[in-house]
Write a structure and sequence with these properties.
Chain lengths: 157, 167
């Protein structure tokens, strides 16, 4: 039994949502990158989604646009999760940052930038957070060689 | 070397003394291993098990963990070491005083285990010398105790230069 908030969200955003489905009890919305900030603002202000749980991405090497950027939101009012996806191309993997809405985005977006090379517009601090300075490439992209090592300490002979 | 020493060496007494000295120092050192647990991952659970009451590494004189590398002589690397952590491990090793030994505890410290990827160091022997490898994911306490005893045997049989190059 889907929570009533699902209905209200899909009704409210039917004009911009490209695809809406329920996966394992979570509402999944697909929106265009330029609509993302507006949808997120509405989720927070109108539907009470006060937690940004995670920002991650999915690499589809054969697809164009290549990346899904995936956001998970949670509301502590209704205890409901919503997943919002947006698609960006490999040439310009840029989406708007959510730090104007959620401070947590600061760090999740840094991690996503580390692992997939997604750029977040208006997030000024995209230094490596799990990786280290000098690391070349984005290890969770499918084209990153599985065995490539970038050691910080030179190996012994 | 003084003339007295030279005379003693000619008679064979010096060699006798050196051998006995190594035996004695080896015996002392093998029962006073002060481990520095460099614990990074799930092997820590097994390390707690092996060092606490039931398996009790105190029986081998390797009980009291020292959390300062200056005060320890056995570096126990317990768990996966990431490339980002490697400089820390290297520095801890360099801060330990001689004599020092290193045990790679578990398969991740030994070879990286199943973490063959961008993040994990494929074996700590890439950056520091290792005396003993204990495989297993995690190793059984019996394996760890066996490893410690093997290391003790090695220490007991080693040369232990403590005064000069020759003695």
């Amino acid at each position: 039994m889907a929570p009533p908030v699902h209905e209200r969200i899909t009704a409210r955003w039917s004009r911009v949502v490209q695809d809406a489905a329920v996966s394992h009890g979570t509402l999944v919305l697909l929106v265009a990158p330029d609509q993302l900030l507006e949808v997120a603002r509405s989720l927070k202000a109108e539907f009470g989604f006060d937690l940004l749980l995670d920002v991650t991405a999915v690499d589809w090497p054969a697809r164009n646009p290549r990346f899904d950027v995936v956001y998970h939101f949670y509301t502590t009012r209704d205890f409901v999760r919503v997943r919002v996806k947006t698609r960006v191309a490999a040439a310009t993997p840029v989406v708007d940052s959510l730090i104007s809405l959620y401070e947590a985005a600061r760090y999740s977006e840094r991690e996503c930038h580390d692992m997939y090379g997604i750029e977040f517009r208006n997030n000024a601090d995209l230094r490596p957070i799990l990786l280290y300075e000098g690391f070349v490439g984005h290890p969770l992209r499918k084209d990153y060689p599985k065995h490539r090592e970038q050691p910080l300490v030179p190996y012994r002979k | 070397m003084t003339p007295d020493h030279r005379a003693a060496r000619g008679s064979g007494a010096f060699e006798y003394l050196t051998t006995k000295k190594d035996e004695f120092v080896g015996w002392a050192r093998k029962f006073s291993l002060f481990p520095y647990p460099f614990v990074t991952a799930c092997c820590a659970m097994e390390f707690m098990s092996v060092s606490s009451t039931l398996y009790d590494t105190d029986r081998f004189g390797a009980a009291l963990p020292r959390f300062s590398p200056r005060q320890s002589d056995l570096l126990l690397v317990v768990g996966t070491v990431a490339h980002k952590q490697a400089p820390v491990l290297r520095r801890v090793y360099e801060q330990m005083c001689e004599p020092k030994w290193v045990i790679a505890f578990g398969v991740c410290a030994t070879s990286g285990g199943f973490y063959q990827n961008y993040a994990a160091l494929p074996g700590i022997d890439r950056i520091i010398p290792v005396d003993l490898y204990i495989p297993g994911c995690p190793p059984r306490p019996e394996m760890v105790i066996d490893g410690i005893m093997k290391l003790q045997d090695r220490i007991a049989g080693d040369r232990h230069p403590i005064l000069t190059e020759t003695f």
